[in-house]
From TrEMBL:
It comes from the Bacteria. This is TetR family transcriptional regulator. Keywords: DNA-binding, Repressor, Transcription, Transcription regulation. Residues 24-43 bind DNA. Residues 1-61 form the HTH tetR-type domain. It holds the Pfam family TetR_C_1. Coiled coil: none annotated. It comes from Streptomyces pharetrae CZA14.
């Protein structure tokens, strides 16, 4: 008998070894020692398998105690999403597909609810709240994927050579600020600015949304 736990454990092992892109139902079946047809009795396809993995992972992540203040609640929930996906960046890649939210488990949806509900409680319309969540989601996933794709892609020597070529090619007359930054750019770009930028981003989104929301005159 092949259990779901056995399947997901083997899938995680293959992803850790070769990346999620190279995971196939046939390769997973061979890893477990069963036929692909047998495995299809447990999972519909590769996408189904990946979401089963994400569900299991999300269920293991403790939901943080969220603040009562709507704006702070949104930031705390977005940070929890960021930190969870940063540990599993391949999951962020899978979740870039359209309609991903309908495939999430209740554990993951609690954080989505916190962001959308926080926006509504702050004074946004439900439509604005969805747009705000989408903007925060795009920023969060983009930040994770850029860092994941940048990490380990090139050796230190290759990065140094690229930096030398970059600096030598700068026209200080046309690009004075980039020229002044020069060799400081990699260290500055590597700094974790997500928390600070998220706060500013959320504040800006909420201010923009609520300023456009008609308010009932007070009596």
């Amino acid at each position: 008998m092949t259990s779901r736990t056995q399947i997901l454990t083997a899938a995680r092992r293959l992803i850790d070894q070769s990346g999620w892109e190279k995971l196939t139902i046939r390769r997973l079946a061979a890893e477990i020692g069963i036929g692909a047809t047998t495995l299809y009795h447990h999972v519909r396809d590769k996408e189904d398998l990946l979401f089963l993995l994400i569900h299991e992972y999300a269920d293991q992540i403790p939901i943080p105690e969220l603040p009562s203040e709507p704006r702070d609640r949104m930031i705390a929930a977005a940070t929890a999403i960021h930190d969870a996906l940063a540990a599993w960046p391949w999951a962020a890649e899978v979740l870039t597909t359209d309609g991903f939210i309908s495939r999430l488990s209740n554990s993951a949806l609690q954080l989505v609810e916190a962001i959308v509900g926080g926006a509504v409680d702050h004074g946004c319309t439900p439509e604005q709240a969805v747009h705000i969540f989408r903007s925060i989601w795009y920023y969060t996933v983009g930040e994770i994927l850029v860092r994941a794709h940048s990490s380990g892609q090139r050796t230190d020597d290759e990065r140094a050579a690229d930096l030398d070529a970059f600096i030598e090619g700068l026209d200080s007359a046309r690009l004075p600020h980039l020229s002044a930054l020069g060799r400081r750019w990699p260290a500055l770009a590597a700094q974790d600015t997500y928390p600070l930028a998220l706060s500013a981003f959320v504040d800006g989104l909420l201010a923009q949304a609520t300023s456009a929301t008609p308010r009932t005159p007070s009596r």
